[in-house]
């Protein structure tokens, strides 16, 4: 590997992280990073004083252009659009996983409310730590304008960012308690785990049956899950749960025999579940298929049914 390529590869994780947060899809992120590399390979790098700044600038501008066209495609998407699941980076067995709310499904979904420039300013400043003077050069806008963009963005995504970050242990405990209460049909217990204003967002993309609207409120969400999960529980173990980290926190992969049919994640704040996000679109679930679902750190919960085909409909 030559010096040019080594230098680029040392920045690849940063570029892929930025591109994914800008677009919400892994394929688009990889395409953006590849295009950034092509421009890098055609540039006299001896004339570049700060490789990181150059690469982030180019990657950001390509991502902004790509986001414009992606937004128009998403306007015709059937139902709720959720970001493509992002697998966790491999880690050593003794490494304690940490919640990363900057790639949570909740925040990525909320970022869709922003204009491309708001999204870029917010991510570059609040997530990647760039100054507004640096962002000004990246976006070609005055520093004060970039500050306003980030401020507006911050206000619009505030509800998707927990006030108090949950530990990975608390997150998994609440996720499991939610599952067990719903499976047993214990609505009062289930409701106690949910914030009063909890929301359920489900993404089927017109390719799998889901709720066609956002369910809001502890009563509606608890009643829905208690009805669905208790009605489809099978003691023969046909339905299987795998606790798997994706988008920065533990989530649930749901299998009907060997077929992956749903991926569920939650956002936790102040000790309760504030949002539930369910991927049902098989094209997005394909992100998990390359993963080894029998990894030792996975937790299996057998004999529990999250859904049958169409069970996310109401």
Give a verbal description of the structure.
The chain is of the alpha+beta class and 314 residues long. It has 2 domains: 3-79 and 113-160, Butyryl-CoA Dehydrogenase, subunit A, domain 3, CATH 1.20.140.160; 168-302, Nuclear Transport Factor 2, Chain: A, CATH 3.10.450. It is 45% helix and 16% strand. The chain contains 11 helices and 7 strands. It has helices at residues 3-23, 26-41, 51-74, 105-110, 116-127, 132-139, 143-156, 168-183, 187-192, 218-231, 282-285, and strands spanning 194-203, 215-216, 239-246, 249-256, 259-269, 272-279, 299-302. Strands 2-1-6-5-4-3-7 form a 7-stranded mixed sheet. Strand 3 and strand 4 form a beta hairpin. Helix 6 packs across helix 7 and helix 8 (168-183) crosses helix 10. Mean pLDDT is 86; it is low at 292-314.
């Amino acid at each position: 590997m030559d010096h040019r390529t080594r230098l680029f590869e040392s920045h690849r994780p940063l570029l892929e992280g930025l591109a994914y947060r800008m677009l919400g899809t892994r394929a688009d992120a990889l395409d953006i990073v590849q295009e950034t590399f092509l421009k890098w390979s055609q540039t006299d790098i001896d004339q570049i004083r700060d490789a990181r700044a150059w690469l982030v600038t180019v990657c950001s501008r390509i991502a902004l252009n790509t986001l414009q066209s992606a937004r128009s495609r998403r306007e015709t998407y059937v139902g709720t659009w959720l970001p493509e699941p992002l697998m966790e980076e491999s880690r050593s067995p003794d490494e304690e996983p940490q919640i990363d709310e900057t790639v949570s499904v909740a925040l990525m979904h909320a970022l869709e409310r922003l204009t491309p420039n708001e999204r870029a300013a917010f991510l570059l400043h609040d997530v990647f730590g760039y100054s507004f003077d640096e962002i000004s050069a990246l976006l070609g806008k005055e520093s004060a304008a970039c500050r306003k963009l980030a401020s507006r963005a911050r206000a619009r995504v505030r509800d998707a960012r927990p006030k108090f970050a949950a530990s990975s242990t608390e997150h998994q405990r609440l996720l499991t308690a939610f599952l067990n209460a719903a499976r047993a049909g214990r609505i009062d217990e289930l409701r106690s785990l949910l914030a009063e204003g909890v929301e359920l967002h489900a993404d089927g993309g017109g390719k799998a049956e889901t709720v066609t609207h956002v369910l809001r409120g502890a009563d509606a969400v608890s009643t829905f899950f208690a009805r669905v999960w208790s009605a489809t529980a099978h003691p023969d173990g046909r339905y299987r749960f795998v606790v798997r980290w994706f988008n920065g926190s533990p989530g649930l992969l749901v299998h009907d025999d060997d077929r992956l049919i749903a991926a569920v994640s939650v956002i936790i704040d102040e000790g309760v579940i504030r949002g539930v996000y369910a991927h049902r679109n098989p094209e997005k679930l394909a992100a998990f298929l390359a993963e080894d679902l029998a990894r030792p750190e996975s937790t299996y919960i057998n004999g529990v049914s999250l859904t049958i085909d169409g069970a996310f409909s109401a």
